[in-house]
Amino acid sequence: MKIIGGEAEFKENQYNTYFTDSGRSSLRLILRSLNLKLVALPDYLCSIITDIFIQEKTEFIYYRINPDFSINTSTIPNECDAIYIIDYFGITHDYLKKQAVVKNKIVIEDNVFSPYIKNTIQFKNWISYNSYRKFSLCAEGSLIQSNIELKSELVQLSSAPFIDYKYKAKSIKYEYINHNLHSEKDYLYQFEKGEKALDEQRDLFSISSQGFNQIIKFHESLSIETKLRNQNYQVLKRSISPISFKISNFKSFFVFSCIKPKKLRIELMSHNIFLPIHWPNTYDIDNILYQNTLSIPLDSRYSDKDMERIINTINKYQYLKLT
Q1: What mean pLDDT value characterizes the chain?
Q2: Which is nearest to 107 in space by CA: 119, 92, 90, 91?
Q3: Which of 20, 114, 170, 271 would disulfide-bridge 25, Cβ 3.0–4.6 Å?
Q4: CA proximity to 47, closest of 35, 57, 55, 39
């Protein structure tokens, strides 16, 4: 007979769960918890990742990422004891299920562009983390899931210093856009101070109460957010060819190739369209993706009309022929 009433039951989570203030802190926690001799890093990545590996004195070697964001597994060295995999903008590397090169190695899965963290490929030794700052309006927060135990005692219970600047900047920007208060320089100055504080940070912190509240609000509207992002993606896809790869239902950015992305980006700025570059090639790594990719944000701040405006503006600069 079915039991009715009493406290609700649930199946125990098979993974360890941790929260930190940022993706950077999550990566530091992972590296400080493991005694890694050599990690294989993709040769298309944010330079902050390389910075952290250098700062944490963890040896690394690069492997090749193909023009469609897939992994050239033949370039992953056998001598590495861990592989760092980036799920670019929601891509899934399903083909790795049959690759012996990852079978007995520790896999650090970079899911910073996704609200979902799942061991979909069933890696034997697996750690994955995201960064809520990368795909939502949240100013802080990173979730880690792992079947390897990490040193949670390294995470301080207090909140990170950078968030005060970030929350102030976001508030000023809101008032600037919606109430014509302050100036653009006011919120940009606070954002810059926040980024500087984050760059200088080496300690690991927890998420603030305000941060948890923002994350809860984001997940409450996640289904609507996902739907609107997909609509924006489809509008762009009708006119611009995305870089071809299998991407999840949650779309973070629309990534496409063009001949002169930096020049196009500057042209778009004159029309109040500010597109991010993923990523500046700080370490001068030899990969074509640094030279020909540009990203368009898809989040629910923007409508199909905004996407059409971006398309029409891009079309004004035909000399920057899309490929």
Answers
A1: 93
A2: 119
A3: 20
A4: 55
Tokens of 113: 């562009």
Res. 320: pLDDT tops 60: no
What does 59-83 look like in DSSP terms, one character per residue?
-EEEE-B-TTS-B-GGGS-TT-SEE
Q: Find, among 146, 151, 143, 194, the residue nearest to 171 by Cα.
A: 194
pLDDT in the model for residue 323: 44
Across 1-27, average pLDDT: 92
How many CB atoms are closer than 10 A to CB 197? 16
Contact 177, 155 (CB under 8 A): no
DSSP states of 167-182: HHHHHHHHHHHHH--S
Q: In degrees to the nearest 10, what's the CA dihedral of 207, 213, 219, 221?
A: -150
C-alpha distances out from residue 40 to 50, 84, 117, 137, 147, Å = 11, 6, 21, 31, 20
Residue 12 is predicted with a pLDDT of 81
Indicate whether this model's pTM tops 0.85: yes
